[in-house]
Design brief:
Length: 118
Amino acid sequence: MATAQELYDALRDFAERYAAEPRLKVMNRDWNRVIHVAPTDLEDADFTLTLKDGVLTLQRGAPQAAQLVVRADSETLTDLFYGDISPTEPYMDGRLRVEASEEDTMRLDVITLMIWGE
C-alpha cells in the first residue's frame, strides 16, 4: 500500500510532466474537466486534478463534482501516475476503474500516451 504522500508525489510528477509537454496544452485548451483520483484503500486521501484551458492543476481532497473518477488501490494509482505501469493491465483485471464518458476516457489515454509513450 502506498501512503497518501506517495500518491500525491506521483500525481505532482504527472502534473509536471503534463506541463512539460506543450502539445498537451494546445490539444486540451478546450477540454475542461475535473478528475477525482480516489484510492480505494486510503481514507481521506482523495485528490483532484483540474484541467482548465489546457493547464492541469492538482489539489488535495475530493471535488464537489467531477467528470472523471479514477479508482484503484493506492499502490496501483501511484505506479500508474508515475508511469511505472500501463493502465491496460489493471483496467482489464478490474483493479482500475475509470468512471467517465468514452470520449473522456479516450482523451485521458492520449494524455498518458503523450507523457510516457507506449
